[in-house]
Amino acid sequence: MKIELCKGGCGKKAKYSGWCGIKWKKENRICVDCSEIEKKRGKSISKYRIKEAKLGLNPMQNSEICKKNHSLERNRKASETFKNLAKLKLLPQQTESKYKSGLRLSRIRKALQKLSAEGKLNHQIESPKKKKLRHQKISKTVTLHYLNGVYSIPNVKRVKYKSKLRGNIILRSKWELDVAKFLDSNNLLWLYEPFAIPYIDNKKNKHHTIPDFFLPKYNLIIEVKSNRKDFFTASNIENKEKAIRGEGYNFYLWMNKEIEMIRKGNSENLLENIKNLEVENNA
Q: Structure pTM?
């Protein structure tokens, strides 16, 4: 018995009126669901859109249409519609089968991996200045939302602190809280995670480090790190320190020993070392 193949040319067995699959059927009308047909349809639409854009007929090129389509009221209605569909679990990604979901995620993953290998991802092509501004914006938004109780940050032990010099601020650990209190008690003006500094690791990969504390008066960056192996990598710290000093900053790495000195009230040497920098800078 000869097996009838799909009319679309995908090579699959024809099950529904000569097609391998259908999306819906109404009386004598059907909506075909064939991968080959979808590809051809996508290419046809793409060619039409390109031709339309070259002639300046694309709705997005018309300022009046664009203004109407992207009005605040339209965006609000669209947002409400999507929320309602999500509650009813009718969004495309909620109704698709596990097989199709797997295929879609696989395509996305491969596309991202390809872009990453070519160095074309957004965070790979943006300038250091834009990356710095992006990090600052993210940090401010997270801090603001966390302080206002909009959301909590999972798996990260954040610490709220009301600094007499900096106001309300969110720190990443109790160690950083100890350092902030130490700086406040000695009236040392400080900034928390104020900017990003580029550095290169041992494998020649480019990264950015965001310093924990910056003391403008002493041009000093203080990095707070634990001795634990899962937190501390000597080579990584060395690369960061090299980059920080290369930018003209003074650098101190405070670990278990320095934190214990602060907690026990034996921090005179730490304070003296900081204040000596002012003498060195003025020399």
A: 0.47
